[in-house]
Amino acid sequence: MNVFNSEEACRKHFEAIRFAEGDSCPHCKHDKIMRFSDGKRYRCHKCRQDFTIKTGTLFGESKIPLQKWFIAIYLLTTRKKGISSIELAQQVGVSQKTAWFMDMRIRESMKQSKGKLWGIVEVDETYLGGKHKMEEGRSRKSAIMGMTERGGEMRAMQIPNRETQVVPNALTENVGRDAHLMTDDAGVYRKTIRIGYKHDSIKHSRRQYVHGNIHTNSIESFWALFKRNYHGTYHSMSKKHLNRYIDEVVFRFNNREVEMGAIFNEVTKRIAKRGKMSYKTLIA
Length: 284
Prior knowledge:
Layout: H1 7-18, E1 33-35, E2 42-44, E3 50-51, H2 66-78, H3 85-92, H4 96-108, E4 120-128, E5 134-135, E6 138-139, E7 142-149, E8 154-159, H5 166-174, E9 180-184, H6 191-194, E10 198-202, E11 210-211, E12 214-215, H7 217-234, H8 242-254, H9 260-273, H10 279-283
Parallel strand pairs: 4-9, 9-10
Antiparallel strand pairs: 1-2, 2-3, 4-7, 5-6, 7-8, 11-12
């Protein structure tokens, strides 16, 4: 609040981030724009269309002040256990429905990197939801697969099930072939050797948790953090939006040692580069 103590200060900061690589019209991408004297509107030299600093970004044509957006970004990126839309609504001063929409748009900017993991990579899955009650042959629980490079980044995503093709496909998409995999003794990981990975497993079924360098403690620690977000803050995550919540927790985990100002600017930069998200699309 000291740094962004006015709407004008917020607008100037977001303008500096959005146009860091030069002016650009959100309508036709032309590189020459005019600035109105009120500081709130712009006009393209080529297509002559007017726009605001939010046009063409994840903020969309939101009438919510940038100062409130910046508070929401700060809260969502610094709270280790996240922040519910109910609490965000109270902190920012908007309705719960608006706060939920704000949350989802900020999470959209937290999507995970597509780069591959290397070195020693721990792999595991967890489940969210109620009991393993089957409906039409499917579990009501949501399966999540996670991979973490020791001393490096984390990847996690929702998977439809733990079948023999699902897990190997997720591995080849996210983990380099020279990586050394560490897993538990679940049978699904036996295929990893066939597809070219060096693989060691720890026998959790025999109450073995560490054997020399072989363990899955890092990925287990992430699951503990994720469950604190789930049980302590959100209480429920719909299957439809589960990957957005996963992206949020992974983003905070991967940036846990990064200075707050750099994280804040990274999120606002991503918001500036991504197109708008409509509420109708989100709830469709």
